[in-house]
Amino acid sequence: MDICVFGAGSLGSLVGGMLATEHDVTLVGRNPHVGAIREHGLSLTGALERTVHPAAATSPPAAVDLAVVTVKSFDTATAADALATVELDGALSLQNGMGNEETLAGRLDCPVLAGTCTYGARRREPGTVECTGVGDIALGPHEGGTSPLAARVGRAFAASGLETTVAADMPRRRWEKLAVNAGINATTALARVENGALVSGPAAGVATAAAREVAAVALEADVDLDPSAAADATAAVAETTAANTSSMHQDIAAGKRTEIDAINGYVVDAASEPVPVNQTLADLVRAWEWSRDLR
What we know:
alpha/beta, N-(1-d-carboxylethyl)-l-norvaline Dehydrogenase, domain 2, 8-stranded mixed sheet, globular
């Protein structure tokens, strides 16, 4: 496939780098990362070690088979506008938070797939990305069901060495991922701890309570996500990614805007009843952003 990865940061570069072992890939990102890839290639280190030489640019090509969107949630509309000028067969969101697929579908004239990804990635320096943990990718139509595009993309990802499942239940998977992110991201960011601190530490109850609230809101949206299953999934991810630093923790450590609005903030907005844990986490992270003029 001819693939454009729009948002070649840490995760986008990792996924795009793996895809480049079997496909024609263009990484769309920012300098100096793009410039380093052009000059020396992309070095993947850690759990997945190799050097690949995808194309790299600061704007997308005129036509590709698939656009893989990995930008921060608050940049999704901008990404969609840029990709609206590209001839596409389909798009896949591998982003945190909710609402990204709907934004893409509303602006792109192509099918949009939803995806969840548990690979860990961290950009150490321009042109180098560390895989901090091998995970898996699930993808399928964002509204659920199956499609020829999803099957084709699944085969393309699997052929590149990425653990991939083509799933018909992406609405449930999206809400479960939201529950995990709502429990882990803001909690670790505010406490400045690695994910493993939520396995049995003092903040473990905060994380699982946030996840349970997400499941309750999912049930309101007619998505069958059991609160205990959401809490168990959050605890399991915290354990399997114990040494990882969550993306929101990384953002706060770097003094950058977070994706709080699309994660805990989304839960608050979607809920018909109070969700006090998610409300508190969202308010605290937003207060940090406000104090640094990031909002």
